[in-house]
């Protein structure tokens, strides 16, 4: 992913020091993606100067296919912040080359902030997504559904996602063995 990461509450302009007000129950994340497909991981670092992004907002990464805007309308939080708490959202993307790109957005949790409405959180034409690692795809329209703003069902199936996990693990193990054997010999 190159470009911008937009983390939005109720369409509010960033607050003090470039922080965006974000709903305490979880908010919207809108990404500008520029590759045919991208793996997306979203993490949260708590505090004003977060250095550890140890709260995963996407425990199973999202496989996004297509170029353009990808928006998750309501990304639920596994923690309970207080009104006024600061945090940083970290978006990690990885594509075909295997390199990872990182973008961050500073937020302040506010009880008055709301996720973006459907007309402000829309995916570009041709964008689809699915969680990789789920036994089945989340139901359409659920707050944890990465395609809740998409007009089409995500491609593939849970079986395809599980095959991808096996292929990924086999590839990593294979590369590890090449590295180990290359160092030994």
Would you write up a description of this structure?
It is a single chain. This protein is of the alpha+beta class and 185 residues long. The protein has 1 helix and 10 strands; from the N terminus they run ββββββββββα. It has one helix at 158-184, and strands spanning 5-8, 20-23, 26-33, 37-46, 55-56, 62-65, 68-76, 86-94, 100-110, 128-131. Strands 2, 4, 5, 6, 8, 9 and 10 form a 7-stranded mixed sheet that branches. The longest helix has 27 residues, at 158-184. It is globular and about 40 Å long. The N and C termini lie far apart (37 Å). The model is unreliable at 1-5, 8-16, 135-145, 147-174 and 176-185 (pLDDT under 50). It holds the Pfam family BIM1-like_dom.
Separation of the first and last Cα atoms: 37 Å
Rounded Rg: 17 Å
Helix content: 10-25%
Taking the sheet with the most strands, its summary is: 7 strands, mixed
State the secondary-structure class: alpha+beta
Average pLDDT works out at: 73
Helical run tally:
1
Number of strands: 10
**Strand share of the residues?**
35-45%
Q: Ranges with pLDDT <50 over ≥5 residues?
A: 1-5, 8-16, 135-145, 147-174, 176-185
The outline comes out as globular
H/E series: EEEEEEEEEEH
Membrane topology: Lipid-anchor; GPI-anchor
Keywords: Cell membrane, Glycoprotein, GPI-anchor, Lipoprotein, Membrane, Signal
Region (Disordered): 1-21, 134-158
Organism: Apiospora saccharicola
């Amino acid at each position: 992913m190159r470009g911008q990461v937009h983390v939005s509450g109720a369409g509010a302009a960033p607050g003090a020091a470039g922080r965006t007000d974000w709903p305490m129950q979880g908010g919207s994340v809108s990404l500008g993606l520029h590759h045919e497909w991208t793996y997306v991981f979203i993490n949260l670092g708590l505090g004003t100067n977060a250095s550890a992004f140890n709260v995963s907002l996407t425990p199973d990464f999202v496989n996004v296919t297509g170029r353009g805007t990808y928006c998750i309308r309501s990304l639920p939080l596994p923690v309970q912040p207080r009104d006024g708490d600061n945090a940083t959202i970290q978006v990690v993307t990885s594509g075909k080359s295997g390199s990872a790109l990182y973008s961050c957005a500073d937020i302040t949790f506010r009880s008055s902030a709301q996720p973006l409405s459907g007309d402000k959180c829309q995916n570009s034409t041709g964008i689809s997504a699915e969680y990789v690692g789920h036994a089945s795809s989340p139901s359409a329209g659920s707050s944890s559904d990465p395609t809740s703003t998409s007009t089409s069902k995500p491609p593939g199936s849970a079986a395809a996602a599980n095959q991808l996990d096996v292929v990924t693990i086999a590839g990593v193990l294979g590369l590890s063995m090449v590295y180990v054997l290359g160092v030994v010999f």
